[in-house]
Design brief:
It contains twelve helices and twelve strands. It is an alpha/beta fold. Strand 5, helix 6 and strand 6 form a beta-alpha-beta unit.
Length: about 350
């Protein structure tokens, strides 16, 4: 993409958001403004490679502060909003849903209102160019039987957890602002992401780091739940395409075509670590696997049909699950500077990470 753009990324210090910022900043024709509240999962260390880039700036702030958002839009003459700011951990949503309602629903509402006021003040060319890209999850669709079915853009919503219900509500708000007010909104729904800089409470980094510490590797139930896995850098490329080339009013599903049971994911990590980082006392990392009581409302299976984005925007994932997982394990082995302070400080590693 050669044309100059000014993009506001919300939640850009999070896992996917930081990958998006790194992806965008690689293009000097894109100016990136990262707005992040820096809650527990926001980490500026994930952005150290672009922190001093001339086309990048960071603002600590809340998407619920619509006056701040409007001021940033005007000051930076933003033509694209990529909205990734969200509370996203299912277990945390079960324990305390209030934060999910506030950020995912109220925050999206306030962000949409600020965007609408800004968009209405643009000239005709500016309004035609502007995009509001709402980034969501496949969990809004509920779950699938183990053997049949796949999520398409037309799959009815059936969220199962407070997290997915809050994201479903925010999706509906974004679409309503397009239908009612004409705001140029595009929506994307992705499958489970993994890769470097993933917060250590989530399944894959939790298993890697617990294994390095010779701790139990918790797996919900029998580990039979199935997820479609998407390497985060592939997702970031897809999000840039949706934000800059997506059609207003349309939604795009983004998936890795890499369905695996949770148990298969954990076992694959164990096998990689057996080769790369053998246990100190000998034995297999698989011996650390521990099955624990299932969580409430645990969806059986997610599977994404990514045909639309592949066909219309020309995106395909560059990484297979095997290559992406190997890259991820290698990254965690080589980057204790990033995850060490998280494990020893704000986050103790007790919370389960199973999907």
């Amino acid at each position: 993409m050669s044309e100059t753009r000014s993009i506001l990324v919300t939640g850009g210090a999070g896992f996917i958001g930081s990958a998006v910022c790194r992806q965008l900043c690689a293009n000097p024709a894109i100016r990136v403004v990262n707005l992040d509240k820096l809650t527990y999962a926001g980490n500026l260390a994930s952005l150290s490679s672009i922190g001093n880039a001339p086309n990048y700036s960071f603002v600590e702030g809340d998407i619920c502060d619509d006056r701040l958002v409007l001021e940033l839009l005007r000051r930076h003459e933003v033509d694209t909003i990529m909205h990734l700011a969200a509370e996203s951990h299912v277990d945390r949503s079960i324990d305390g849903p209030g934060a999910f309602i506030e950020t995912n629903i109220v925050g999206t509402f306030r962000l949409l209102n600020a965007a609408l006021e800004y968009w209405r003040g643009l000239d005709e060319a500016g309004r035609d160019r502007f995009r509001f890209h709402h980034v969501s999850t496949d969990e809004v669709f509920g779950d699938l039987p183990f053997e049949t079915g796949i999520f398409t853009e037309d799959t009815p919503y059936a969220p199962s957890s407070p997290y997915s219900a809050s994201k479903a509500a925010s999706d509906h708000l974004a679409r309503a602002w397009h239908e009612t007010y004409g705001l140029p909104v595009v929506v994307s729904n992705c499958s489970n992401n993994y890769g470097p800089f993933h917060f250590p409470e989530k399944l894959i980094p939790l298993v890697i780091l617990n294994a390095l510490d010779e701790k139990p590797l918790p797996v919900y139930g029998k580990g039979a739940n199935v997820r479609d896995w998407l390497f985060v850098e592939d997702h970031a490329r897809a999000l840039e395409l949706v934000a800059t080339r997506g059609v207003p009013g349309e939604s795009y599903n983004i998936g890795g075509r890499a369905e695996r049971t949770n148990l298969a994911v954990v076992e694959a990590i164990c096998d990689l670590l057996d080769d790369r980082h053998p246990r100190r006392g000998g034995g297999r990392h698989r011996d650390l696997i521990t099955f624990v009581a299932d969580r409430p409302g645990h969806d059986r299976r997610y599977a994404i049909d990514a045909s639309k984005i592949e066909r219309e925007l020309g995106w395909t994932p560059a990484e297979s699950f095997e290559s992406g997982l190997a890259r991820t394990v290698d990254w965690y082995l080589a980057n204790e500077w990033w995850w060490g302070p998280i494990r020893s400080g704000r986050y103790g590693g007790e919370r389960l990470g199973a999907a």
